[in-house]
Design goal:
7% strand, 53% helix, mainly alpha, two-stranded parallel ribbon, globular
Length: 87
């Protein structure tokens, strides 16, 4: 079984059947599951404001909905993954 370590590894699906077939053979690594499920155990955080092009934000929200995630949490996960890559 293939495992996904970054959300960016999950492809866009054309149909629900394609997505179902993908998830039958793929699993999320534990750190992604933990980050998605344990939102109540978050560390202290600072609120910031980001300005997005409305079309870009709509695309991000659509991606998040397709993955059953909150779009803000998904953006934070992307930033955390990129920060790890950069370091």
């Amino acid at each position: 079984m293939k495992s996904v370590s970054k959300w960016s590894e999950v492809p866009n699906f054309n149909t629900k059947e394609d997505e179902a077939a993908y998830w039958m053979q793929t699993r999320l690594e534990q750190h992604l599951l933990d980050a998605s499920l344990h939102k109540t155990e978050m560390r202290d955080s600072t609120t910031i404001t980001l300005r997005f092009d409305p079309r870009m934000l709509a695309r991000i929200k659509r991606l998040a909905r397709a993955r059953y995630l909150n779009y803000q949490s998904m953006i934070k996960q992307w930033l955390a993954e990129r920060l790890e890559d950069e370091l």
